[in-house]
Design brief:
The complex is a heterodimer of chains A (48) and B (199). Chain A is mainly alpha-helical and 48 residues long. Chain A has 2 helices and no strands. Chain A is elongated, with a radius of gyration of 18 Å. In chain B, strand 1, helix 6 and strand 2 form a beta-alpha-beta unit. The chains are: A mainly alpha (48), B mainly alpha (199).
Chain lengths: 48, 199
């Protein structure tokens, strides 16, 4: 159990804080632009 | 989809710029991400998910669209100090104004649909276009027509799409935000250079 915990801890600490922030920012931006400009599906903005 | 493409362009340009400058790539931190979720989730149910979008009556669409735009406006306001968010906010505001003035729908003219070779059997004036946010409206009946979905891509691009001036500003705002690098201090620059140069 301790081994598993240490492994998980090591894995999580290896994930750079910068990368996490970038992922959150990109997710926010994708959802933002889809909601603000292009909620429609297949054809792109305003089109089906 | 075209705005998601703008994000990809911004990310690529921002990463390349950081590499040329020899600094780590880092965007500004955005606050209150949950506001975007509050806006995106209902829109996903209304416009994208087949099970739900077929069951929601068209009369509720304007209510949902306008209320979700409020969450987005609040998100932009809370992040107004982030780079290029003034441009994102302006684009959002232009879309919000034209949608609000036209009964909660983004107007699209028959001329635009014809120019994109959409068969007349697929649309009708005064009706919603597919499951999109657009309502087919004659140019004469559209308030602030100039801000509606009147722009299209050149014919040589094999992708049918119509978009508004607000969408263009949103696209440039996103690209500008992602190109702007928040990481400019010399210490981080030195550390980053050390990291990439030393094996």
């Amino acid at each position: 159990m301790t081994k598993l915990f240490n492994k998980t801890k090591a894995l999580l600490s290896s994930v750079d804080n910068r990368v996490v922030r970038l992922i959150v920012t990109l997710t926010s931006l994708v959802l933002f632009v889809l909601a603000a400009g292009a909620p429609g599906g297949l054809g792109g903005i305003g089109m089906q | 989809m075209i705005l998601v493409f703008a994000i990809a362009i911004g990310l690529l340009a921002g990463s390349l710029k950081a590499r040329f400058e020899g600094i780590a790539y880092q965007t500004s931190e955005l606050r209150c991400f949950w506001l975007v979720l509050l806006a995106a989730l209902p829109q996903f149910l209304i416009y994208s998910l087949p099970v739900t979008r077929e069951r929601i009556s068209d009369q509720w669409i304007p209510v949902f669209l306008i209320s979700t735009q409020f969450f987005l406006l609040l998100f932009v306001w809370l992040n107004r100090n982030s780079p290029f968010f003034w441009l994102l906010g302006l684009g959002l505001l232009l879309n919000f104004v034209v949608i609000s003035l036209n009964g909660g729908w983004m107007p699209i003219s028959p001329d635009t649909l014809i120019s994109q070779t959409i068969p007349t059997s697929q649309w009708e004036i005064g009706s919603r276009f597919g499951y999109s946010k657009d309502l087919v409206m004659a140019k004469g009946n559209t308030k602030l027509w100039i801000l509606s979905d009147i722009l299209t891509l050149p014919n040589w691009i094999p992708y049918r799409v119509a978009f508004s001036v607000g969408d263009v500003l949103l696209g440039f705002g996103v690209i500008g935000f992602l190109i702007h690098n928040n990481q400019t201090d010399k210490e981080t620059r030195k550390t980053y250079l050390k990291e990439i140069l030393e094996p």
